[in-house]
């Protein structure tokens, strides 16, 4: 197995939760060439991953037939020995089957599984373990199936050297007028449409409570289309805390370097939360309580103790009502937790 294609071509958060899988695969098979198939919007992140050797950009299932044929030809030309689909649907199954990859592994779900010749039953719908563990189970199956000794990975999964971080802090200082000697708390109030999130008033109460106890400066981040949300949050807190809006950057790699400069990152269950966790920045996250979206299922990649999660109370009527998360109760736990690192 010299050339292996790993497919994780869905959202940013899902892709970040595949990093331990790339680490396990590369560390267990250091002489292999690991290629990731990802959509264009996660390409920059894939290029940052130290365990990915090559990246192929997926045209996605919405592309026309000509683009899909070209992608299949590109994959076929690489002459992969194996493919591992961490996420499986009919589109992905068809890609690796038409590319004639000899060894094709994926979760044994849906009708598409007939196009794979190696399958692992996972029952992800039960959400009994974190998403990254489901991914790792597939890699373990692959390695055991090929009689390869398994090297268990450990975080942090992404780091930048001191010179890089110093340069990024200076860049943010010049761009946003931040104080380099102060603690920086990043807050991402958007959700990218991927999960329920706190209201702006809840975020404002959280920011004011943390500022009252710890001071610091608050960086209000925003993705495309979320600029107005960040501006509204700024209006709610500007009279009580030092806050700035960070809604423009030089691409996803630049944004990732900025997150690495944070002393704390606060968000709902979003891609930016999982990027920050991969960097092992302290993360405070808010999740729905329905089975497919719990803090357990979407547990971040932080090392032990560096993530704190909250969700609404259990019950069908309350599981997705983020308004039921009491900010005062969050602050009691969060202040004690943060104080361990900010004393």
TrEMBL record:
The organism of origin for this protein: Photobacterium marinum
Lineage: superkingdom: Bacteria
GO biological process entries: lipopolysaccharide core region biosynthetic process
InterPro entries hit by this protein: Glyco_trans_9 (IPR002201), LPS_LOS_Heptosyltrfase (IPR051199)
Residues annotated as transmembrane: none
Coiled-coil boundaries: none
A GO cellular-component term linked to this record: cytosol
Keywords of this entry: Glycosyltransferase, Transferase
GO molecular function, one term: ADP-heptose-lipopolysaccharide heptosyltransferase activity
Name by which UniProt lists this protein: ADP-heptose--lipooligosaccharide heptosyltransferase II
């Amino acid at each position: 197995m010299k050339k292996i294609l790993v497919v994780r071509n869905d959202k940013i958060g899902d892709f970040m939760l595949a990093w331990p899988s790339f680490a396990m695969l590369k560390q267990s098979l250091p002489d292999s060439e690991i290629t990731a198939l990802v959509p264009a919007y996660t390409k920059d992140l894939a290029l940052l991953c130290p365990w990915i050797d090559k990246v192929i950009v997926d045209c996605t299932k919405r592309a026309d037939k000509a683009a899909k044929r070209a992608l299949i030809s590109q994959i076929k030309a690489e002459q992969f020995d194996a493919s591992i689909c961490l996420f499986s649907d009919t589109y992905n199954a068809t890609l690796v089957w038409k590319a004639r990859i000899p060894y094709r592994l994926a979760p044994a779900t849906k009708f598409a599984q007939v196009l794979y010749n190696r399958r692992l039953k996972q029952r992800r719908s039960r959400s009994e373990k974190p998403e990254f563990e489901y991914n790792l189970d597939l890699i373990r199956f692959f390695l055991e199936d090929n009689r390869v000794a398994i090297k268990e990975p450990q975080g942090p999964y992404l780091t930048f050297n001191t010179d890089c971080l110093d340069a990024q802090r200076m860049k943010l200082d010049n761009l946003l007028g931040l104080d380099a000697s102060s603690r920086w708390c990043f807050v991402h109030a958007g959700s990218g449409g991927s999960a329920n999130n706190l209201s702006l008033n809840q975020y404002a109460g959280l920011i004011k409570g943390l500022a009252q106890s710890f001071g610091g400066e608050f960086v209000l981040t925003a993705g495309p289309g979320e600029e107005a949300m960040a501006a509204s949050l700024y209006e709610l807190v500007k009279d009580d805390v030092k806050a700035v809006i960070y809604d423009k950057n030089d691409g996803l790699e630049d944004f990732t370097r900025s997150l690495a400069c944070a002393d704390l990152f606060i968000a709902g269950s979003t891609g930016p939360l999982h990027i920050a966790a991969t960097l092992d920045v302290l993360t405070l996250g808010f999740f729905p309580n329905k089975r497919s979206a719990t803090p357990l299922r979407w547990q971040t990649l932080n090392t032990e103790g560096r993530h704190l999660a909250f969700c609404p109370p259990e019950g069908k009527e309350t599981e997705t009502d983020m308004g039921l998360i009491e900010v005062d109760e969050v602050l009691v736990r969060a202040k004690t937790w943060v104080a361990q690192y900010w004393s």
